Amino acid sequence: MIWVKRGAIALLGVLVLAVAALANWEPFFARTAAGAPGGTYRAEIIRDEWGVPHISGRTDADTAFGVAIAHAEDDFFTLQDTVAMSRGRYGAIAGEEGAKVDYVYHLIDARGTAEREYPKLPARTRAVYEAYAAGLNQYAEDHPGEVKLANLFPIDGTDIATGFALRQPFFFGLDSVIGPLVAGELLRREHGPDIPGFPRPPLEGAAPVGEPTPAPAAKQARARVLPTGEEAEHLGSNAFAVAPAKGGGTTTLISNSHQPYRGGVAWYELVIESGEGWHLAGSTFPGVPFPVMGHNEHLGWTNTVNTPDMIDIYKLELDASGTRYRLDGKWMPLESRTVILPVKVGPLVLPIRREVLRSVHGPVIRNKDGAFAVRYGGIGKLGQLDAYYHLGKAKSFAEWEAQIARLAIPSTNFVYADETGTIAYIYNAAIPNRPQDVKADWRSVLPGDRSDLIWQGAVPYAAIPRIVNPASGWVYNSNNTPFTAAGKGSDLDPASFSPVLGIELKQTNRSRRAYALLSASGTLDRAALEKIKYDTGYAREGYVARLWDELGRMKADGELAKARDLLLGWDFTADGKGPADALAMLVIRDFMAADYSNKPFPDVPEKLQAAADHLMTHFGRLDPPLGELVRLRQGTVDLPMDGGSDTLRAATTWDVDPDGRLNMKHGDSFIMWVEWTPGQRVVSRSIQPFGAATTRPRSPHYTDQMKLFVEHRLKPVHFWRDDLLAKASKPRRTIVTNAR
What we know:
Helix content is 31%, strand content 21%. The longest helix is centred in the first third of the chain and has 27 residues, at 2-28. The chain has 740 residues and is α+β, with helices and mostly antiparallel strands. Strand 13 (348-358) and strand 14 form a beta hairpin. It is built from 18 helices and 27 strands. The strands form four sheets. Strands 19-17-16-8-7-6-5-2-1-27 form a ten-stranded mixed beta sheet, with helices on one face. Strands 3, 4, 20, 21, 22, 23, 24, 25 and 26 form a nine-stranded mixed beta sheet that branches.
């Protein structure tokens, strides 16, 4: 029996070694930067009474170095996630969900795009990104106990560029195409309601409005695909600009972005300044070394998500081996490589092998219906790194628009205002330059064997919607069609734009309310605009009208009848004052999501029953105050919220806590209010849902903005240095450098 014991001991040893290998293999195979960025950087960081950093340096690069240090001081936890994503290592942190991101990283060749395109950027632009990478490296070196993964640092500018390449297609819904294709599921058409007077031309073979086309993914016609489910929470934001003639002499820009409150696309507020002309206040994402929306002394801009048809899908014809595809009568090799996805499971990191395919069209996904290539606007480009950098340096509308006109930023609406009183709305989108003389249904899955269907580049800037200084004196966007943007008499005619552009015709409730309120207003001064911005009303139109019409026809008894009658008596405002507000909050969200995502209309009795059950279980009544149900929670702070899932005061998405409360995680997030008054310097105010240090519970700025946020109040932005030093209570100044 000795040999049995020895065998067992040997087997145990093998198992121990295997476990150790699975726990430690990933860092040894991780890609590291060829060399940490060189150079010496020095920056000053002054934090105001809210912890918002004002970062300055002799050069732009010095300032970018300081931005990295300041942001890491507040949220190194999230910054590391973005770095891991840019290395294809997020699965080693976030498990299966992170591995999905890593798969897309490989599928769209984010690293390859950065390695090809980043060296082409101007040296001065690259210097900013290299300095930012150096700042993250410095912080990691100084705080090794905070680093999540071994060999995650050092990084360089190519890593920062890779993060841009990975994220940019998701703002116009690439994930909503990749996900269904990988799963072999149906893609859904956009059917949203036509705008009165703007009929959509009929599409041959189109499915009934609101229903999916009953065909496999390979044959599914599509106008464009919107994110579904949780992805829909990223489709939000309001933006307003008012000219001085309409605003009582003041030019106003209101940025009201709706982003998640935490994570890689949560806003971070900052002010930057340099001896090379940078002076900009606003907000940025983790992994970006300057504000991507905000204002300088002369002008400002903000963004909302738009969703033109930026994506084309091609069905490939493969040969019997599955390794070649037909193109113009010839067989072409299908590029194939195997990648290793690290997937954290408990203490182990499992290496999962996946095949990544590519054709001349773009990335290829193979499922039960065949092989599909995907091509999207901005594919293989990274000019946005340079365009965004120069937006903040512009001093006039002409300089600013010259950067937008490059169409280097693949998508997002821009709303603009400046010190001269100029206001503008631009439907920015690098829409594919599809050939007009080729017979093809660009709204369907295309044949992959024709090279004439493989477009190159984007349409001309002149082809996209644009409004400058409308007679109405205002522009806005709330993720709606660009054909309602400035009021009757100032709006664009959709007939003036090619249907091949695939411009959306959808409205949101926020858009309906904003359009009506702006149109009905006289002077749009601060008080009037505040009422509009914090409006909690619903228009009985679109999905809201359909929902209430079905409630009116619904037969019910008992508790369900009481819930129905309570909603039928609702005043269509989510201000927290009516007895039906909480019930309406629970019911409307799924119908809004279905409308945004082109899903079938949910079952009304089922959703009403679920909402009623939730309220009775956790509150013992159908009519608790809205503020008891909807909460803003962080640490030990727990505050009531108002607003709705599709109101201008947005409370969009939540987690349901064990006590039944809705813990808000997405909706109104960073708000910035900018004003230019003749003879005065630009002034601005802002607010965040939590504070400047969202992942630092010990920081005084972990929750210090929450009370202001729920009370519809804003705090001052100390844009000017003398204002910062004179008015900010006890500003904290530090000098950061990588010199040793």
